[in-house]
Design goal:
Strand content: 15-25%
Number of helices: 14
Shape: globular
Protein name: Glycosyltransferase family 2 protein
Number of domains: 3
CATH topology of the largest domain: Spore Coat Polysaccharide Biosynthesis Protein SpsA, Chain A
Pfam family, one: Glycos_transf_2
InterPro entries: Glyco_trans_2-like, Nucleotide-diphossugar_trans, TPR-like_helical_dom_sf
Number of strands: 12
Distance between the termini: 71 Å
Organism: Tumebacillus amylolyticus
Helix content: 40-55%
Structural class: alpha/beta
CATH architecture of the largest domain: Alpha-Beta Complex
Length: about 350
């Protein structure tokens, strides 16, 4: 059986840290918590779970903090989490099993990461992250913001899922770090450009975001997953700037980087739907329904686009076209994913009443 060091970096996480640690502390052999300047009771809470609580001055560099936490680990493997992550009960069992059965030849294990759920408890978005790492490989984090692990060797793709429960609202911390790097003349990697553009978009700085995304897409080293996402984020910017032709071109540009994605097809469908081009919109939404949902995808996977959402939009399109049978069919398919959704129940009643009225 392997042994595991759990490493967390924290700052002002008093509201989330107990939930996180309660879900996992008894499954690991060592718990290391690195505090980067908490002013609430985070450190005191951490000390009730472990004596391995350390302090690290915050220098606007997430990779530096995570690498410092890793440096205190002494067990066979390192598992990392954030304070607003947790393991649900089925995943506690999976970690227990993984710990008992993992072949020591494995250098790193990747796991699904649920980024958000809706009011019905369904997953909204997820991705895959390298989560469990052989300590002897001395894997390092890179990047001041949106840091990543550079790994190599033998890989296991696990279904052990970490679930993220966001507690903090959006802040300008990440944007400030990037702006500081920019002011200091620090070079931006293509990855920096992508995430800088994302931060600018989230802060409604659309012209600046367009510039960052264009620089990213014009670079020679943009990762295809980020490139596809950058195209629809670029389209979002142009939508806000009321430049529909450039919005449409940005969405089509996503096909330059890989096969069709449901996220892009649905956005193209929405583009046509907003212009009352019902048949054109329906073709894009129909294509979205044919695309597979893969939990092995490393980029962020927006699950509604692969499940219920295109069927809801197809219900609208076919209703407007006058094809009530297909409208009803797609509303029923959407309801199979969201049986308690009141909007879908209202659609069902409306469609049934309309069909009955046509028969009389």
């Amino acid at each position: 059986m392997i042994t595991i060091s759990l490493c967390l970096i924290v700052k002002n996480e008093a509201l989330t840290l107990p939930r996180c640690l309660d879900s996992i502390h008894d499954l690991v052999d060592e718990l290391i918590i690195l505090d980067t300047g908490s002013t609430d009771s985070t450190v005191e809470i951490a000390a009730t779970y472990t004596h391995r609580v350390y302090h690290f001055p915050w220098i606007d560099d997430f990779a530096a903090a995570r690498n410092a936490a890793f440096s205190y680990a002494t067990q066979d493997y390192i598992l990392w989490l954030d304070a607003d992550d947790q393991l649900l009960e089925p995943d506690r069992a999976k970690l227990r099993h993984l710990k008992q059965t993992l072949d020591p030849v494995i250098d790193f294990v990747s796991c699904p990461y649920v980024l958000g759920t809706d009011d019905h408890g369904q997953v909204l978005s997820s991705c895959r992250r390298n989560r469990l790492l052989k300590r002897g490989k001395n894997f390092r984090w890179h990047g001041a913001v949106h840091e990543y692990l550079a790994v190599d060797g033998t890989h296991l793709e696990s279904d052990l899922t970490v679930t993220h429960y966001r507690m903090h609202g959006d802040t300008d911390r990440n944007l400030r770090i990037y702006q500081k790097k920019l002011a200091q003349g620090d070079p931006f990697s293509p990855r920096d450009l992508y995430y800088y553009g994302t931060e600018l978009l989230h802060h409604n700085l659309y012209p600046q975001a367009v510039s960052a995304f264009e620089d990213f897409l014009n670079s020679d080293e943009c990762w295809f997953e980020d490139a596809i996402a950058a195209c629809w984020k670029l389209a979002d910017c142009f939508a806000q700037l009321r430049e529909p032709e450039r919005q449409h071109a940005a969405l089509l540009r996503a096909f330059d980087y890989g096969p069709p994605r449901a996220e892009v097809c649905c956005r193209l469908g929405d583009f046509e739907l907003q212009r009352n081009n019902w048949e054109k919109a329906a073709k894009w939404f129909e294509q979205a329904t044919t695309l597979p949902l893969s939990t092995s995808q490393w980029g962020v996977l927006h699950r509604p686009y692969y499940t219920w959402l295109p069927h809801v939009q197809l219900c609208i399109c076919y209703f407007q076209i006058g094809d009530l049978d297909h409208a009803y069919l797609h509303n029923q398919i959407a309801r199979a994913y969201r049986p308690q959704d009141q909007r879908l129940l209202a659609n069902k009643r409306l469609l049934e009443q309309t069909q009955d009225a046509k028969k009389t």
